Amino acid sequence: xxxxxxxxxxxxxxxxxxxxxxxxxxxxxxxxxxxxxxxxxxxxxxxxxxxxxxxxxxxxxxxxxxxxxxxxxxxxxxxxxxxxxxxxxxxxxxxxxxxxxxxxxxxxxxxxxxxxxxxxxxxxxxxxxxxxxxxxxxxxxxxxxxxxxxxxxxxxxxxxxxxxxxxxxxxxxxxxxxxxxxxxxxxx
Length: 188
Prior knowledge:
By secondary structure, this protein is of the alpha+beta class. Helix content is 36%, strand content 22%. The chain has helices spanning 2-9, 22-25, 31-38, 45-48, 93-115, 140-160; strands at residues 61-64, 67-70, 73-74, 76-77, 80-81, 121-132, 163-169, 178-186. Strands 1, 2, 3, 6, 7 and 8 form a six-stranded mixed β-sheet that branches. It has a two-stranded antiparallel sheet with strand order 4-5. Strand 4 and strand 5 form a beta hairpin. Helix 5 packs parallel to helix 6. The chain is globular.
């Protein structure tokens, strides 16, 4: 299963010409079109339901005016956690990065669930990221870049790069190694 996640989540589409990288296409494609063109496997929580309910009592999102507050998202496909363990012991920085990237796909699914389309995103305001790691692991920022890089690829640097904080922690629910909490500003 991790091989599938890596193939879906990492790197440019092998079918793209070198001049067709997402950066060049962003000016001519909407975020929805770009995500489709990139072949991103974004979950449809409107059909499958938000998996966060398995972790406790919560709702998947809350809207206040033009701000969308997403509940926690993790590296999970359906009911399967894709990256369990502790970065710096069980997982490498690269595996943590991939977990953050998979989490990003779930964030995109959460946005769609809440407002119907990625095209409604005006900007990513901020993310608060948690990395399960050893006490001496100091590269939590590199792990979170898996999420940030995906957001920039889909929305561009102006819309997709918001404020970010990353905290190393001892444990998260279900053994996940990465979790994020995102706030998104929406267009009318």
